[in-house]
What we know:
By secondary structure, the protein is an alpha/beta fold. It has helices spanning about 10-20, 30-40, 80-85, 105-115, 150-160, 170-190, 195-200, 205-220, 230-240, 250-255, 265-275, 280-300; strands at about 1-5, 25-30, 45, 50-55, 55-60, 70-75, 95-100, 120-130, 135-145, 165. Strands 1, 2, 3, 4, 5, 6, 7, 8, 9 and 10 form a 10-stranded mixed sheet that branches. Helix 4 (about 105-115) links the parallel strand 7 (about 95-100) and strand 8 (about 120-130). The longest helix is centred in the C-terminal third of the chain and has 23 residues, at about 280-300. The model has no long low-confidence stretch (mean pLDDT about 95).
Amino acid sequence: xxxxxxxAGAVGCYYGGLLLRAGHDVTFIGRQPHVDAINAHGLLLxxxxxxxxxxxxxxxDATALAPPDLVLVCVKSADTEQAGLALAGxxxxxxxxxxxxxxxxxxxxxxAVTGHAVIPVVVYVGSEMAGPGHxxxxxxxxxAIGPSAASQALAQTLEAAGVxxxxxxxxDKTLWxxxxxxxxFNALSAVAGISYGxxxxxxxxxxxxxxxxxxxxxxxxxxxxSIGNDLLAHILNIPAIMPNQMSSTAxxxxxxxxxxxxxxxxxxxxxxxxLGIATPTNRVLQVMVKLAxxxxxxxxxxx
Length: 303
């Protein structure tokens, strides 16, 4: 397949790398340092079972793309419309577009800009860009994709590349469940610079996580999404399963990049305000990250 990965970061390079290794023709669209490294030395795919360089093509702009068979959109939520504009006019009717992004509203936002159907995907992977053109896998890797006429064939393609994939008939529930997990841990991990494992050992953290989850669940249910009563217990068990994982928000802060907090806890805050549901814990977590971002930016300017 001719595959384009729009957003060659930790998620895009991991899944694009697996598809590349499986024999597909993958083009990575990303930032200059990664593009230069990939074009010069190939993509360094560093997983639990494979560590090696794969010859690959990369570019900073999607305008050079030939119409692909499959597009994986992996950009940050704030860049969704920009990515969609770059793709508009470069998609064939039969092209499948997957949104592998945090948050719950990226697929419709992308579809509105491209005029093309977009299949939402929920990503369960721990990965990071360990250097230019170097993606390191920490754990997980499953995908849940929304239902469509192409979903079964896409799942088979991903499975053949080593990606365990399910088709989620209730994709809204799956998207919201992932969002709520992000609301529980991302901000705390980012502001403290702490991995998930030791987080709950700090007195009071379990209460904060519980409150953030309960608020988000209330907003989800008021939005018509059925969230099970067992989600909180599952979330509180995640630090034991992924003790060394740093949240994507923590990785963004560490690199001095804008985070997606406005599309995580911030989305819950905005949606809660629309529905008349108080979300004070999520608001505090959002503001904490915004303050940390501002502090990083001011420090960078001083130096």
